[in-house]
Amino acid sequence: MSLSDKLGGKAKEAAGEAIGDDQLRAEGKADQLAAKVKDAATEVIDKVKNIVQK
Description:
Blueprint: H1 3-19, H2 22-53
Helix pairs in contact: 1-2
Pfam family, one: CsbD
Family: Belongs to the UPF0337 (CsbD) family.
Protein name: CsbD-like
């Protein structure tokens, strides 16, 4: 996921915090976590590709 996905999640979380919407805040946190997981998975895939190519 891109930086915009992370920022979108952060914005959702902040909006939920501002208006007292726990569901929106949770969605924002989940979006941020999903972005981090996708980034980590992409990094692992890239490392495996580099190992296989050697």
